[in-house]
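Internal ticket #5521
Category: modeling
Description: The requester needs a full-assembly model to guide mutagenesis choices. All entity lines are attached below as received. Residue total reported by intake: 688.
Assigned to: D.W.
Attached entities:
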Amino acid sequence: MEARTEIETLGEFGLIDHLTKNIEFQNASSILGVGDDGAVIDHYGKQTVISTDMLVEGVHFDLMYTPLKHLGYKSVVVNLSDIYAMNAHPTQITLSIAVSNKFSVEALDEFYEGVYAACEKYGVDLVGGDTSTSRSGFVISVTALGEVVPGQFVKRSTAQKGDLICVSGDLGGAFLGLTLMEREKQIFLENPQIQPDLENEAYIVGRLLKPEARRDIIAFFADNEIMPTAMMDISDGLSSDLLHICNQSQVGCVVYEEKLPIHEDARMAAFKFGLDPTAAALSGGEDYELLFTIPQSDYDKLVLNEQISVIGYMTDADAGSKILTKGGNQFKITAQGWNAFKDQ
Amino acid sequence: MEARTEIETLGEFGLIDHLTKNIEFQNASSILGVGDDGAVIDHYGKQTVISTDMLVEGVHFDLMYTPLKHLGYKSVVVNLSDIYAMNAHPTQITLSIAVSNKFSVEALDEFYEGVYAACEKYGVDLVGGDTSTSRSGFVISVTALGEVVPGQFVKRSTAQKGDLICVSGDLGGAFLGLTLMEREKQIFLENPQIQPDLENEAYIVGRLLKPEARRDIIAFFADNEIMPTAMMDISDGLSSDLLHICNQSQVGCVVYEEKLPIHEDARMAAFKFGLDPTAAALSGGEDYELLFTIPQSDYDKLVLNEQISVIGYMTDADAGSKILTKGGNQFKITAQGWNAFKDQ
């Protein structure tokens, strides 16, 4: 029988100590970490970037098919993705959680294993947090800090007419992974004897459960002296997020359907579910790829990077936001991304 | 009839915009705020202190007797208190909330009114956040950043044998306010016709619902060249928090019951409820006063400050942690503070 230690036996402080006792700092700027009222961070000669996200059970994740270790990993990564989307390097995070007593210490250990795996992979230090009880679901709040050379951060509001629109990686995979997991969950609820059919779906399931943040793209920019004119990460879906850049930059855009990067496994999954891969790429969220714009003159600098696709260009605001389909039609881009306040 | 706007009509981004559109920065270090993947903060020549807290409905607050404006105010203040407890000056906060659809936009406006009131009073800028739906209760997560002159932050682990133990303000009031509100709630639930009897209880109710952070004490330290040897804020109760300093500093302590600062209104409320005022001062949490130690040689510097009480001194760790009662008895101090993981 697996060990099960009640959280209550450790108490809040014992629990924090238990969960954080093995932390070793990876950044010289991390002066003081967990165990005091606050953490202390040095940022001489750099600017600090800060970003925060909350993940709520039943809204952002379903524990029925989300392993706790993956959840811990993802909770960190989605915040780091925001820091990279500012053209900055993440250095520290704080993590607050509220959990019900139905969680054991071992379950929290699993969650933190994922947290620490992400911290190690991305070189960030966990420097603080808060641990509390919850009457109902599991709630996770992460705040990430990062460093950027003064003035080198990239906003959403500074894209220019004529700029090329680029995305990293591929789109729609996480949404199709979610569709698959929700489908398997329904089948399981109706008949618990049926085992999930996840064969050949490793890619889209991985995109949903274990996303990565695009540190490589930020490093590529630095190595190749590329400064995007505007950037954000794609968490709500390309349509929704591109419209944010257009609105905040007061420009319009043209996107080519044929240029949208879609992984072959995602395309096959879409067909299997009777979904349009293009719709999945446009409206599916949680891919955590980077969406950015560059001046046309920088095109040569990134053309050889297979992880970057040029999908369109920015226009006058008056021209609106459009997608040109493979069939030669033209549609207005609308934000059908995920709305946290509408019933799904 | 009062206006009621459904949150859904604004959507997540409309809601964030609605709640944050009037922000004006108060700190030159706030370079970029809400509306991008991250905020940008300058910290040339200073160290950054960061602290985070999560408040959960039904655990940390009861909406039945907590006005939303006060809740917003308190959510900020409890974090600023942690920054002051590091001997630092808060400069920015991020705020994430998860709310159910039963909240209207007007209700959230009230909550944010309190948030902004606290930001204005303490001179901090709200620079980021996340707004999400919740299937059940209201969850609030605040992360505060502050600045400190390099090396001037004060930890919990550096108290020395012989140091004087000091607290700001008075203790036990918030706990007695909570006791009163819980009592009135029970009476109301049993008979909704009976109006709450809060006469003469303004002080303790205020201590519970609208605590303040001790910025004045930090300013007093700077003005009088006082550098505490250790410090923390009293959120879990004096006993529990003092034991943290003792454990982390590897010292013991002696506290004099007669020196504990207890407000006259708190004392009267305690008698009315049949509670021991000393127990309320030792074990009641949420007063957000500062607990700190100073070398005996600094005693003259603070003796004239009526907001500071010297309540005892630090001893060898071997001597344990003791309280000397008015009656001449001696007891071991035990942490009976609030444990977020035990049923209350």
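Resolution: model delivered.
Comment from assignee: Chain A is about 35% helix and 25% strand.
Ticket closed.
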